[in-house]
Amino acid sequence: ALAGETTTRRGAFAAAEAYLQTGTVLAVVARSMGDDAHARSVLMQVVQVHGDLATAVSDPARAAGLYQRALDLESVPTGAADFARAALLHGRIGDAARTLGELDRARQQYQEARLLIAEAARLEPGEPRYQRELAVCLDRFGELLAGTDPAAALAPMREAMAIRRARLRTSPADPIARTDLSMSYYRLGTTLAGLGQVDEALDLLRADLGLAEQVARDQPSDGDIQRNVAVSHAGIAEVLARAGRRAEAAQAYQRALEVLGRLLAETPQHPRWSADQAEVAQALAALQATPARRRR
Question: Taken in order 44, 47, 53, 59, is the CA torsion positive or negative?
Fold first, then answer.
């Protein structure tokens, strides 16, 4: 299997190299015709695709180098689309740096991406895509901070949540807007729980569950959407268990198992759902095996 994976990676990179060479030729032709801007644009897009492939095959160091090369080929941004494209590249460099454990570099890249996409949103405030991408940048930055300074992560996470709440107010039936806000509630809720702010954490996680259930009712055949409901129940259970509310925690774990059980009844031995089921069952068993603390 490993040999096959290696062969697949080599084949994919060979194809990408050919694509890169073709793009380079097109760029040279465009430049020879006096269209330098088009030449740079073509080459930038090809290099970015090459970086995406490196990301897909888990080569973050190579991906970061390619995304940086694409950035170097970018013209000075003037319009919203230019700022958004540069923000995307900085964000992907940040993702690669985070995977490599280069947290300072990742933080710098996420901050730059945040500033750039914020400018795109300022230039075109009516474009929902830029608002959504701004929330994603804030989430990435918040998640990075949560690993070392959870209290500092709260501000960008709250800002992302506010953007998504505004989006849902304008598009209340949009399942993507619901799912995005649900994820914001979950991230902020779990971060607050880690800081011991249990009441607000539970409020947010229950709001997350409510949205996840709405989306699941509208899309009953989407297994991943149904799984989100199980994840939400499990998140609530973890916070309740940490707070010593064992009976409530056990009920929440059971609800998560019920959702996963229904999914696995339809698709037996699904690797992700089977792993989820085993993890939740283990957490419930550990909770039930731990003696309750006696009250004085």
Answer: negative
Using the 8-state DSSP alphabet, how is residue 244 labeled?
Answer: T
State pLDDT tens for residues 229-280: 999 999 999 999 999 999 999 999 999 999 999 999 999 989 999 999 999 9
Task: Give the span between the Cα atoms of 48 and 51, in whole angstroms.
Answer: 5
The two tokens of residue 70 are 């694409």
* 60, two tokens: 């973050």
Contact 113, 101 (CB under 8 A): no
Q: What is the DSSP string of 70-113?
A: HHHHSPPP-SHHHHHHHHHHHHHHHHHHHHTT-HHHHHHHHHHH
Spatial CB neighbours of 13, under 8 Å, sequence gap ≥ 6: 53, 57
The pTM of the whole model exceeds 0.85: no
